Amino acid sequence: MNVTVMTAAPVQPTQANAANRYEVRRADLPLSCPLPSMALWNSHPRVYLPIEAENGESVCPYCGAHFVLVD
Fold first, then answer.
1. Where are the domains of the chain?
2. Nearest of 37, 16, 33, 44 to residue 67 by alpha carbon
3. What is the H or E stretch that residue 21 is in?
4. Which of 5, 19, 61, 69 is least buried, going by the fewest C-beta atoms within 10 A?
5. CA distances from 62 to 7, 34, 46 (A)
6. Residues 50-63: tens digit of each pLDDT
7. Neighbour count for residue 48 (Cβ, 10 Å)
8. pTM of this prediction?
């Protein structure tokens, strides 16, 4: 009996700290830098950033990435 196993292709994480400005949505909260979809091996430690209490924007103290809440 032949059995075929289907597996999903691995998702490659995006490069951390590659852009200066990131747009995020409420579904992405809580906000952290680097984002969960980013590779951590070449980045700074993950930090959580306040964005709702501010003016809908936040800046990472490590890399200076600017996050904007768009919805």
1. 21-69
2. 33
3. strand 21-24
4. 5
5. 37, 10, 10
6. 998 668 999 999 99
7. 11
8. 0.70
Strands 57-59 and 66-69: antiparallel
Q: Is 27 helix (H, G, I), strand (E, B) or coil?
A: helix
CA–CA gap between residue 32 and residue 36 (Å, rounded): 7
> What does the block give as tokens for 52?
């709702």
Q: Give the pLDDT mean for 9-37.
A: 79
Q: Are 33 and 46 in contact (CB under 8 A)?
A: yes
> pLDDT (tens digit, 9 = 90+) per residue, 28-47?
999 999 988 887 777 899 99
Sign of CA dihedral 50, 59, 68, 21: negative
Contact predicate 26/15, CB 8 Å:
no
